[in-house]
Design a protein that fits this description.
It is a single chain. An 8-stranded mixed beta sheet has the order 4-11-5-10-9-8-7-6, with helices on both faces. The protein folds into 2 domains: 2-70 and 212-218, no CATH class; 82-204, Aminopeptidase (3-Layer(aba) Sandwich). Mean pLDDT is 88; it is low at 222-234. It is built from 6 helices and 11 strands. By secondary structure, the protein is an alpha+beta fold.
């Protein structure tokens, strides 16, 4: 992902995915670069996220943005983790990626989940993914990214299992793996209205430290190959 600036605003571009990320943009800066963005990147999906800062709702309304995510930011550090066991949880093997991909893409469909299996696979080394099987089928998984710009941080991206105890065990395994590879803190962005995920996270040792909100504008355009333009806080 390369960095460029538009009118002094730093953006991060993934050209292969037609993906752009902008961190915590102020309302006046958004207004100043908006026409440039939509002219230069027509047809893109534009997602703007705001982290622990005032959200410029007047400008968002003007550009037709809709609320996409309203999340609490949770953190856990090594000394605070609460292990959960009782299940046979193992790292995902490449030979089992197809089974994981089918489950992950079903419960986390695009475009709301950027990290679909087709984007995870080429960046396999950036992730730690853990699974639990029953009768040879993957019934639960957790995935944490360990390759971020801040090398001290790992970030949870998804945990799925029908059994609440299994979810906690999967979450615990992913967090522990991040600490084992040298991370000093793990982040977890949990939807404000997802009380189940919050309870799971608190049980593993996470605590609330902030929030972020994401807004989405879906454009119709003609640029060949355009997939998505995202402005996202990380």
């Amino acid at each position: 992902m390369k960095h460029v600036k538009i009118n002094g605003v730093e953006i991060y571009i993934e050209e292969a995915e037609s993906y752009i990320q902008i961190n915590d943009i102020q309302g006046h800066d958004l207004a100043a670069i908006w026409d440039i963005l939509i002219a230069k990147y027509p047809g893109y999906e534009i997602v703007l996220c705001f982290h622990d800062m005032p959200v410029p709702t007047d400008i968002l309304e003007k550009i037709g943005a809709e609320l996409l995510e309203d999340c609490l930011e949770l953190q856990v550090r090594p000394q605070d983790i609460q292990p959960h066991g009782g299940f046979d949880i193992v790292p995902l093997q490449k030979s089992d990626f197809g089974g994981f991909a089918k489950l992950h893409d079903t419960v986390n469909p695009a475009p709301d989940m950027y990290w679909t299996s087709s984007r995870i696979w080429p960046k396999w080394d950036n992730w730690r993914i853990f699974v639990c099987k029953s009768n040879g089928e993957i019934i639960g998984y957790s995935m944490i990214m360990v390759a971020l710009r801040d090398e001290s941080i790992g970030e949870m991206f998804a945990v799925h299992a029908d059994n609440p105890a299994l979810r906690k065990a999967l979450l615990s395994a992913a967090v522990a793996s991040a600490f084992e590879c040298g991370k000093s803190v793990v982040l977890n962005m949990v939807e404000r209205n997802d009380t189940g995920a919050q309870e799971d996270s608190f049980a593993v040792g996470f605590r609330e430290v902030g929030y972020y909100q994401g807004y989405c504008v879906r454009q119709v355009g003609t640029k060949k190959g355009a997939v998505s333009l995202c402005i996202f806080d990380k």
